[in-house]
Amino acid sequence: MTKKQEPQKGNSKTDDLNQNTENGRGHAMTTNQGLKINDDTNSLKAGERGATLLEDFILREKITHFDHERIPERIVHARGSGAHGVFKVYDDSLKKYTKAAFLTDPSRETPLFTRFSTVAGFRGSADVPRDVRGFAVKFYTEEGNYDLVGNNMPVFFIQDAIKFPDLIHAVKPEPHNEIPQAASAHNTFWDFVSLSPETMHNIMWLMSDRAIPRSLRMMEGFGIHTFRLINEEGKSHFVKFHWKPLLGTHSVVWDEALKINGQDPDFHRRDLFEAIESGAFPEWELGVQIVPEEDEHNFDFDLLDPTKLIPEEIVPVQKVGKMTLNRNPQNFFAETEQIAFHPGHLVPGIDFTNDPLLQGRLFSYTDTQLSRLGGPNFHEIPINRPITPIHNNQRDGIARMEINTGKTSYHPNSISQGDPRQAKVSEGGFASYQERVDANKVRARSKSFMDFFSQPKLFYNSLSEPEQSHVVEAFCFELGKVDMPEIRQRVVNLLSKVDGALAKKVADGLGLAVKKPEEPINHQFGADANPQDYQPVKVTPTLKESPALSMVNTIKGSIKTRQIAFLAADGVDSKSLSIMKDALESEGAVVKIIAPRSGFIKDSSGNEVKVDHSILTFSSVLVDAIYVPSGEKSINTLKQTPKVIHFLDEAFLHCKAIAADDEASELVKITYIAKYLNKNLEKQIDNGLLLGSISDKNFSENFIKAVGNHRFFEREKEGKIPA
Question: Is the pTM for the entire model greater than 0.70?
Answer without folding.
Answer: yes
